[in-house]
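Table 4 source record.
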Amino acid sequence: MTICGLVLFLLLQDADLDRLVQQLGDADPVRREEAVRKIQEAGPRARQALGKALQSPDPEVRTRAGVLLQEAEHEAKERPKVFPRITADLEAPLGVVLKELARQSGWSWNLDPLPLDRKVVLKGKDLTMIEALEQIGFEYWIVSGGVVYLRERKPGAPGVPIDGVRFAFSRTTWSPKGEPLGTIFETAMESAFDGAVRWAIAGVKAGRDWPVETCAIHSPQLVYVPAATLTEPRVVVKGTRLWFCPTPIAFKDPKDGERRRVGACQIVLEYPSIRVRLDNDLEEKLLRRTLSQSDIQIKVKPGREKESMSVGMGGGGGGRFGGRYGGKNLAWCGCQDRPATQRPNPPAMAKELVVGFGTFYPLEDIAEISITFHKPVEESFEVTSPPLK
């Protein structure tokens, strides 16, 4: 695309956003919901148009634009807590370095099994957390109860880090009967945030774009190119990372059936439960992370308090192809005969989650129901490997 073409494209995008912002005042609720959804999908690019809409003569546009802008600014404020950047010039015991990492990131570490007296070096500017941990010889393992557990990093291929994710690449010539037939590319993905990563190999470039074969079981970690003598190929990865943005929601003087829209989700009060409805399917295990019973608090009207209150238990749920053949009937990926075409046991998907918070109080005795909803935020990314020898 030429510079002029790119400018025209961006101007058209801005015009579309301005139109969608005006649509926030449409009399048709379906068109209003469509505008909200598309503006939210535009992400940070929509903030300028929303800011201008605060001066709109239409009070409905002003109100809805203000809510969307507040949500976007809250997300921008929370994101660095999930994907911190580190700047340091340290040569000190591990315990001292981890304390500095905690100060810059806000993360808490489980220190019990770590060699805190070991001397480590951490030097760099604007490092991702993965890069910082890699320098000191550790990697993110799991998070439990808001505390991050680390483990010592094993030697591996050099990686390409981005916010929250690191990809490492390698290649192997496939010679099932002693004759080179193609190249197997292996990609290892490491994440360092409390969320999920979805990714796939978008292509392999070596002089030109090469056709890529995949396996429903072993891809995207392993893919195959039917050429054995590629010169310094590069692997292109495309994907999304999904993180959870803690978002406060309040139902003041609550009424049954009230709802709030947050991102691609609707939060519905069905006392004594909260129903979460998503626009699109999400893995059940991820959907359950958006809201739990502990995220819900109630405030009782003055003079209506009782000595004890029962609290219900936590929420319940609602409602790749081609191949090559090798010796001993094994395909390039290790499957029998040919790469698998169907993924076994795909994850359960859902659009709805119901979380109960049983209480002795009738709804008319409740002054406010406060929720910390963990809004799923999906961001696209693209990574290209260095030339692979």
